[in-house]
Amino acid sequence: MKPPRVPLILRPTPLHRLPRLSAELGIDLWIKRDDLTGFALGGNKGRKLEFLLADMVLKRTTAVVTCGAVHSNFIRQLGAACSIRGLRCLALVMDLPFEPGFEIANVGVGPGGNRWLNEWLGVEVHELPNGSWDELFAQTEDLAQRLEAEGETVYRIPVGGSSPLGAYAFFEAAEEIRTNPFFDSIICPSSSGSTQVGLSYALHGAQTHVIGISCDPEPDLLEELKRLCYGLDDLLGLDRRVAAEYLNLRYDFVGPGYGVPSPEGLAALELMARTEGIFLDPIYTSKAFAGLVQMVRQKEIRGRVLFWHTGGIPSLFTVPPSARIQSAEIAID
Ligand SMILES: Cc1ncc(COP(=O)(O)O)c(C=O)c1O
Fold first, then answer.
1. pTM exceeds 0.90 for this model
2. How many Å apart are CA 195 and CA 17, to the nearest integer?
3. E strand or H helix that includes residue 188
């Protein structure tokens, strides 16, 4: 049975060929425009939020609690979803939360971008000093419990909306590309994992290979992805057991770390913008596209390739490109 949905986005999102980049790279390159969902400035989270919001409404939620990085695109789109339903949205954020062992120099995300958009949307953002993800999760749970003690009906949302319902949204999104043309590979960025899991699960056993480009360095991410696959099995009453070995998650394009642009990503951003007039974001999609370009050059992928643009455009407006390049260089040192 399909989970209930509150419609938020314009679907199907556009799917089109990139003629100049196809010629330049020597493949047949297409793009799926989830940057153009028409909801809260676009992005992959709008799809997940249709199902998450329906679940919140069913559970008579009054306050939604989540956490993430200060530049989180999820929090912006969640804030929009909550505000149109009159729900409080509370988010605990750190500039760059990290997994112990993967700390990177704090590059300081500027004032614009999602920070400002969250204000427009009325998100109750609590900024914490940088720390580990576990510290962030613990403080988020404390906040949720305080709100419950005050009488709120709280809905807890994992980072990036990556619950089985979030993955279901991309399981369903795969229907939008099932008809012609046939794709040999699909490349998408992966962070909290439900975009890649939903697509991989839907296309399991098909000839199309889904490759997720990790924007996080932590090796545990693959385990998270596996758990999401099993969660989808439970949600759908299926037994696909999409094996972790089938999930193709590439860690070689993370660059300096989570939340920090990579020099290769910025070059890929520039290439896409100047060749096709389409902007990528500096944190997720640029790294994924850098991965695509390198995999084409190394002949790891060929034929008809689909790049899934997952949005993130507001992050372009946090700092000027020159400062971003410097930050990446500092973080590499
Ligand atoms: C623009 C953008 N692309 C990709 C991702 C990764 O998607 P997922 O969290 O489903 O792995 C994110 C997650 O924050 C994002 O904001």
1. yes
2. 21
3. strand 185-190
Residue 169 has a pLDDT of 97
Tokens of 135: 């510290």
- C-alpha of residue 74 to centroid of ligand 1, in Å: 8
Mutational test site, ligand 1, from 215, 229, 247, 283, max ligand atoms within 8 Å of CB? 215
Domain ranges, ordered by start, for the chain: 15-44+163-332, 45-161
Can 15-44+163-332 and 45-161 be said to share one CATH topology? Answer: yes
In ligand 1, which atom is closest to the CA atom of 48? 10
| Fold assignment, 15-44+163-332 | Rossmann fold (3.40.50)
Q: What is the pLDDT of residue 329?
A: 47
Contacts of 232 (CB under 8 A, 6+ apart): 164, 167, 168, 171, 197, 198, 201, 238, 240, 242
284 lines ligand 1 (CB under 6 A): yes
Q: In what order do the strands lie in the sheet with 248-250?
A: 15-17, 28-33, 304-309, 185-190, 209-214, 248-250
CATH of domain 45-161: 3.40.50.1100
Q: What's the CA gap between 83 and 59, in Å, rounded? A: 17
pLDDT in tens, 261-307: 999 999 999 999 999 999 999 999 999 999 999 999 999 999 999 99
For the CA of 194, the nearest atom of ligand 1: 10
Return the number of other C-beta atoms located less than 10 Å from residue 238's C-beta.
11
pLDDT per position as a tens digit, 41-75: 999 999 999 999 999 999 999 999 999 999 999 99
> How confident is the model over 115-138, as a mean pLDDT?
95
Q: Which residues are catalytic?
A: 72
Radius of gyration of the chain (CA): 19
Q: What is the DSSP letter of 95?
A: S
Name the band, by pLDDT with cuts 50, 70 and 90, for residue 325: low
Determine if ligand 1 sits within 6 Å of the CB of residue 314: no
Q: Are 5 and 51 in contact (CB under 8 A)?
A: yes
* Ligand 1 centre distance from Cα of residue 192 (Å): 7
Q: Which residues on adjacent β-strands are paired with residue 201?
A: none
